[in-house]
Amino acid sequence: MFRLISKNIKIFILYCKYHKLSIKEIFKKIYDEKKWGDDKKLYSGPGSHENELTKPYLIFVKNFLKEKNYTVTDLGCGDFNIGKKLYPYSKKYIAIDIVEKLIELNKRKYTNSNLHFKCINVLEEKIPISDCIIIRQVLQHLNNKSIEIILKQIYNFKFLILTEHLPKNKFIPNIDKFTGPTIRLDTSYSGVDLEKKPFNLKFKSKKELIIEDKNLGGIHKTIIYKL
Q1: Is the pLDDT of residue 128 over 90?
Q2: What is the arrangement of strands in the sheet containing 205-212, beginning at the earlier edge strand?
Q3: pTM to 2 decimals?
């Protein structure tokens, strides 16, 4: 009981800190305050760095990308620890994020003729069109309204590669939350499932990869959708 009360207090404190901020201010604050770990640098969290979570994912996605010479849009590229290992398998790789200093840092660190970085607020601006869009552990931080705005542009792509951190056992999907550093697994034992209400994603086929998260709990599910 005490743990539940303590958890709810922490969530409420975070809500008070973030709910009045714009989407751009929210993610700038997350990185400035190093909410996802590593106090020495800009860091996109363990989901982008722990080998047990990233190695199987990279094999899965590389095998898909190398089948064709696809153009790729990486929505929420973060510190680019994942993207740097994927862009060599694309004809053109457009890495976008809302945090300007992340994009500027990535531009200095990574250069290639097929690699392009852009600072974009996808809730207000158009997502650069390509064959395939990668959205890795981004939607889980957003409220449902923001997810719906993004989904309106998803059907401009042939493929969606989506990764979400979800409960391991049965859960009620898509319980709404405030946009911020937490995910539904932590706040309401829920998770984002685009196939369920209110999103009802339409797709032609899909392939799935499930990885158990032994440190934080739950699973990391990656789905390659043909749209």
Answers
A1: yes
A2: 115-119, 92-97, 71-75, 132-136, 159-166, 219-226, 205-212
A3: 0.95
